[in-house]
């Protein structure tokens, strides 16, 4: 029967309506090709709206004027835009911009140089101070090392003297016999005790 | 039904139009004057908004319209078309010449008002004669 060209996602069957009536949201072309004409529209003859010829003539003139002016306006705007673009890219605007940028660049470079100079001064002072401090430290270290060396040498000399002193009591091949006889002649007894105060005790428990 | 490739299509032979995009709520329309591609839906993604138009009069009985003339000039220079209502609004604003239909409609209305007046006058005359 009437198959509705349903744009809605819901199928026609689910809509609460009698089968014969076409019930969809108002959508252009509700009726399909095969649907019959409505009863109220059977005798209708479609006529276009009436045109007043005098008014039409005047209207045509007005339209020609209007389109002429519009075309002129369009071309005018186009020219303006092209001119602006040209100026910006090539002409005066670009020159001014370049000049401004150059000035800015120069000022920034000047600032940078000044800053660098200042930092250099500070840095040089700091380096000087550090060099002086290092110098002092080095000198102190040198002195210390020198003293250490001297102390060491003195110590060694003392050792040598002591050794020389002791060398007099050494047992040499010449003294050997003499010393052996001396040792045999003087037996030493180490069988004694001593406490912290230095009191010697010669009598021990296991004395025979 | 709407395949994704349809939305991402590169337009062939399209052009830019300056037109009214409808927004607002039920029984409360509000138009944005917009530069968009010809083939786009009325309310969908546009290139740039160039103004607005409120068709309902406000408390001071004025209908408010806004235009960004600089950008409109730019788009017209780039070759954008305008739709009839936008052209009419611009004509009333003075940026374009007055649209012929504005003038014609005004004349028609004046004529209709004149005939109404004449008819009521003649009706009053007839009634007076009958009363006498």
From TrEMBL, chain A:
- Give the signal peptide, or none: none
Sorted alphabetically, the Gene Ontology cellular component annotations on this record are:
mitochondrial small ribosomal subunit
For the region Disordered, what residue ranges are annotated? 28-49
Please state where this protein is localized: Mitochondrion
Keywords of this protein's UniProt record, alphabetized?
Coiled coil, Mitochondrion, Ribonucleoprotein, Ribosomal protein, Transit peptide
Any Pfam family hit: MRP-S26
Q: Which residues form a coiled coil?
A: 83-166
Q: Which InterPro entries match?
A: Ribosomal_mS26
Family classification:
Belongs to the mitochondrion-specific ribosomal protein mS26 family.
Protein's name in the database: Small ribosomal subunit protein mS26
Q: Which organism is it from?
A: Cyprinus carpio (Common carp)
Automatic annotation (TrEMBL), chain B:
Q: Where is it mostly found?
A: mitochondrion
GO terms classed as biological process = mitochondrial translation
Write out the GO cellular component annotations. mitochondrial inner membrane; mitochondrial small ribosomal subunit
Family matches, as InterPro entries: Ribosomal_bS16 (IPR000307), Ribosomal_bS16_dom_sf (IPR023803)
List the subcellular locations. Answer: Mitochondrion
The alphabetized UniProt keywords are: Mitochondrion, Ribonucleoprotein, Ribosomal protein
Q: Where is this region: Disordered?
A: 107-132
Q: Which family does it belong to?
A: Belongs to the bacterial ribosomal protein bS16 family.
Pfam families in alphabetical order: Ribosomal_S16
UniProt protein name: Small ribosomal subunit protein bS16m
The molecular function GO annotations come to:
structural constituent of ribosome
Q: Where is the composition biased (Basic and acidic residues)?
A: 107-120
